[in-house]
Automatic annotation (TrEMBL):
Residues in AB hydrolase-1 domain copies: 3-220
Protein name as it appears in the record: Alpha/beta hydrolase
InterPro entries: AB_hydrolase_1, AB_hydrolase_fold
Keyword entries, A-Z: Hydrolase
GO molecular function per UniProt: hydrolase activity
UniProt organism field: Kitasatospora terrestris
């Protein structure tokens, strides 16, 4: 199966999935990490709409219905793509995050300076988010982090097609548990997924970045989702 891999904020496609891609290939899949406009291609003026268009184009170019894997803040990006191509996605896998509703800011989370939102350091991610990352890996990730263009971070989530609720969703739960995620969705704290017709949950014993700390386990879980899809 074609598997499109999209990292969250500050990650590009060239390094974020390096350890996951070989494992997925060994399992018989065709993984494709995507470098989003403005996050690895040098386009500092990229917009959220540019990123959505890039992922939609990758979905359209896939053989059959691909597995769309999105991480962290990119869960909203994946939801926007599901809205644009509800009939073309086999399963939308959300790692460590949940999608925003229509009209919500995409990821206006940290200070924007000189037109970009730089990686803020590890202090905001202390605790369960980063506990499984060694010092050397933290230094490497911080050095490789790509500032997010302002028009991406401060872009607005736009949704139009209610058929997105028919797209199967799988939430992989790293720094929180599947049971917690089920409770949040059932309580209405994640309105987008409360209306989704099929949502599955699975635990992964990692922090917020399992593609770096648990790549083999992550690949196995993606293979299981692909088998169901």
């Amino acid at each position: 199966m074609d598997i499109l891999l999209i990292g969250g904020l500050w990650l590009d496609g060239s390094t974020a999935w390096d350890a996951v891609v070989p494992a997925l290939r060994e399992l018989g899949h065709r993984p494709r990490p995507l470098t989003l406009p403005g996050q690895g291609d040098g386009n500092a003026s990229a917009t959220l709409e540019d990123q959505v268009a890039a992922v939609v184009a990758a979905v359209d170019a896939s053989a059959g219905k691909p597995l769309l894997v999105v991480h962290s803040a990119a869960c909203s990006l994946g939801w926007m793509v599901a809205d644009a191509r509800p009939e073309r996605i086999a399963d939308l896998v959300m790692i460590g995050g949940f999608p925003h509703d229509d009209g919500h800011p995409y990821a206006d989370l940290f200070e924007v300076r000189d037109g970009a939102m730089a990686f803020p350091g590890w202090e905001p991610f202390a605790g369960a988010d980063s506990a499984d990352l060694g010092e050397e890996l933290r230094e490497r990730l911080a050095a490789d982090a790509v500032p997010v263009p302002e028009k991406v971070a401060r872009g607005t989530v736009r949704l139009n097609d209610p058929r997105r609720y028919r797209v199967p969703v799988t939430v992989l739960c790293p720094e929180f548990t599947a049971e917690q995620a089920r409770t949040w969705v059932a309580a209405g704290d994640v309105p987008a997924l409360a209306l989704a017709e099929r949502v599955e949950f699975a635990d992964i014993d990692s922090g917020h970045w399992p593609m770096f700390s648990r790549p083999a386990e992550l690949a196995k879980l993606l293979d299981e989702v692909a088998s169901r899809a």
